Amino acid sequence: MESEKKRDRINPEDWPDALYWRSGTYRKGNGTETIDPGRQGFPGQDAPPENTPDQLQDPRLAADEDSEPWFSRRPSWLGRDARACREYLDSLSDEEIIRKYEEARDRSVVWGGAEYYPNIQKLFLTPFEREKDRREIAAWQREYGKGEVAQWYQEAQEQSCVWWIENHLVARHAFNSCMSCGACTAGCPAAEFYDYDPRMVMETVQSKDEDSIVALLKADTIWYCAQCGTCKLRCPRGNNPFAMISSLRQLSELKGYHVHSTRGRQQYTARHLWGGNLWNRACSLYFRNSMVQFHLDFGPRFARYTLNKEEMHRRVGACPDMDGAMPARKVHPDTLHQVRRCLQEGGTLHLWDQIEHHGRQQADESGTDIDDYFYTV
Ligand code: SF4
Ligand code: SF4
């Protein structure tokens, strides 16, 4: 009976539309998304002040919200919107788009004793933010260079996959210690749900057969791993299969093999979603925009949190779009600068460049606009 009850509570068929609009952040009005101010704030604060600024609307086009697709997060695009969006973004110089973004982001009002920045949420995951990030990251790398790790990555791209296995520190360790016992697969939660077997991944790598490794990198297989770490705990050799998987994912992205599989292609969206958060908000998850339908596998507790997240934020004294200590907030410029330097020196920006390059190439080959590609991969 108990398990029946639990299943009722998380019936995914009931989730998508209903939960999206009840999730505390948005309400639907005239068919468009609007932020529900009544659901945000610090404890004791019912809604932001009435004069809360909204700089996202272009005054020339304010009468027609649909004319601003670059500030939209609608997942289904029509050709007209995609074309209008691209024409507008292309009309802006690098300096203009960065300046406009920063002006919108930094517009604030005092609310609940602290600065509140409503546009942080509105800019999240928009074509405008993605285009700004592309230009800004390119400018950043021109100023600071690629960094040592990125140079090593560039060298590795020219080598074989076997060379990578033998030289990438993480892969080399995992490669040498596996005795193919299968304990990792026996305890792997991903193996229970997918056609996935970490021991077979290790065996493929150990075969040192270039063709087999390339086939593995082009398949969905390596993207099924949830990086939960159970395999490391189970391994009698203290091995770390999930580190090997992580290393193989990097190699797949560097070589551009990831675009051959469905899960691999989705790295384009992941790069801009979590990568965009890291670049702009110095955290990978922006709490205000977590949506149940994207995380059905997180179960009923996450669903409950998502349904009530604004209330939960209030209870712990957090507002993700305010100055302060909680994550997903307005990050101090010095902190953001340091995080960006880490991303650059650690080679992350080079990996993002490769994902961007291969995604764009695939989008061009199929005649798809890059923002359509973002939504549909
Ligand atoms: S449990 Fe360890 S030794 Fe056994 S197959 Fe998995 S990685 Fe290899
Ligand atoms: S980290 Fe990946 S391979 Fe290891 S147990 Fe978890 S899902 Fe399986």
Structure in words:
This protein has 377 residues and is mainly α. It has two domains: 33-144 and 266-376, no CATH class; 150-262, Orthogonal Bundle (Fumarate Reductase Iron-sulfur Protein, Chain B, domain 2), CATH 1.10.1060. It contains 22 helices and four strands. Strands 1-2 form a two-stranded antiparallel sheet. Strands 3-4 form a two-stranded antiparallel sheet. A hairpin with a 2-residue loop joins β3 (109-111) and β4. α4 packs across α6 (127-144) and α8 (161-167) crosses α9. The protein is globular. The two termini are 39 Å apart. One iron/sulfur cluster (SF4) binds next to α10 and α12. One iron/sulfur cluster is lined by residues 178-184, 199, 202, 234-235, 237, 239, 241.
Defining traits:
single chain, 377 residues, mainly alpha, Fumarate Reductase Iron-sulfur Protein, Chain B, domain 2, two-stranded antiparallel ribbon, 22 helices, 4 strands, 56% helix, globular, disordered N terminus, binds iron/sulfur cluster
